[in-house]
């Protein structure tokens, strides 16, 4: 059944019509226990969702909708290895990669945990060799620079995590991430490296991904021109499953780190694709990150829905996106180390839930796939917060707030915290014309200085940004997206929408080199191709 055919959907429509005009300023005034009612804690990890446009009745009604949509059964199906990615007939088991309790998880009657543990230990041994200098390049020098070559989840996850955990990074290694097919990306990164001391990690499950392999071949040429063909095995490792293509490239298959079809690209940072993370922070800290994610996984699987952080975030996402018609939401980390988090979550959410077909193939009539954007605080405050505060769009916001800084300097962090706490309050309260009059604001300026408020926010607090808390945070959003996908009645784990452009690009590529005028596309595309060929001679 689709979302709008559920009985609970009709009850929520009625509830929305009865409550949508309420203002959070009044809800807080009427209920001094609102924070205690609408907040949750997991160790030092806190979710405050009290600044949302909800009453005591809202969450039970949303939970009824979750129950009618079979959310509990879908959660159990994922954790038991069933093929919930039904368009590709695959299990979805990123949760197995951080299954620190090591309980068996079966796919096709085979426990996947022994293989996962084997690859994790292989990563452990290799990362220790590189970090302690015993892994040598072709000329006998230790590695100083790691270049991760991937795209999508093979880039966004490792890049985000190594930046988020930079405080824990070894000083012996420098990290560079190449993803863009634009040659400028790899040229600028290689300027910072020496062939003798650079190690390349090539991340591609099939070892045929166009952008990744073109960049890898450029890196290979750069290395071979400096050190010769024999240097390749000393300076390249593969994060892949295609042994034949890996060996054809010149990489020793002993230096191939496998991952599996049940790991989607945007969930792959927990797998061998996260080798750059382990190289940066070490095996112990990497495992701590896995443990944090496992804690959130266990919480998601076991906690009742009214005490379940990912479930509540997912239900609130449905509340605003479907009932309020809010098309966007913002993720606002008040931690400079998390500056790549919004970009990472953009892929996680929009590639997962940016779908138009229900599970029976029919076209969906309600909105799916909210648009996510964000920036680290306080930079965002001087960029797009104007729109959030006074614009005509309702944009729910998540504020991510480490209580303690990893770099305490003077009043920096207290000022940051003050801003991080003030923004949700301002978005909730707003400022009325009456308040402005009392302040003596000129009548003509009052409309321009009025803030409507009633803008919903969640605040996610942690003692500080640690590997464990990063694991919790990413798992929280992974499961939130899953919850929304279940209620939207879509497959959150395929990504067919990225294919069409790639297919057409392969057709256009040889046409760019053909002297004859191109006539095989629409008149606009033909004209653009021919204009480019004319300019390039």
Please describe what this structure looks like:
- The protein is of the alpha/beta class.
- The protein is built from 23 helices and 13 strands.
- Strands 1-2-13-12-10-11 form a six-stranded mixed β-sheet, sandwiched between helices.
- The model has no long low-confidence stretch (mean pLDDT 97).
Largest sheet: 6 strands, mixed
Structural class: alpha/beta
Query: Into which percent range does the helicity of residues fall?
Result: 40-55%
Q: What's the number of extended β-strand segments?
A: 13
Q: What is the averaged pLDDT score?
A: 97
Radius of gyration: 25 Å
Low-confidence region ranges: none
Strand order of the largest sheet: 1-2-13-12-10-11
Strand content: 5-15%
Please count the helical segments: 23
Question: How far from one another are the termini?
Answer: 57 Å
Task: Give the overall silhouette.
Answer: globular
Quick summary:
The chain is α/β, with parallel strands linked by helices. It has helices at residues 7-19, 24-30, 34-37, 58-68, 71-79, 94-97, 113-132, 153-164, 183-190, 210-227, 232-235, 243-249, 275-281, 283-302, 309-323, 341-353, 385-390, 412-429, 433-438, 446-449, 467-488, 499-511, 523-536; strands at 39-42, 45-48, 106-107, 110-111, 145-149, 174-178, 198-203, 236-239, 256-257, 328-333, 371-374, 397-402, 457-462.
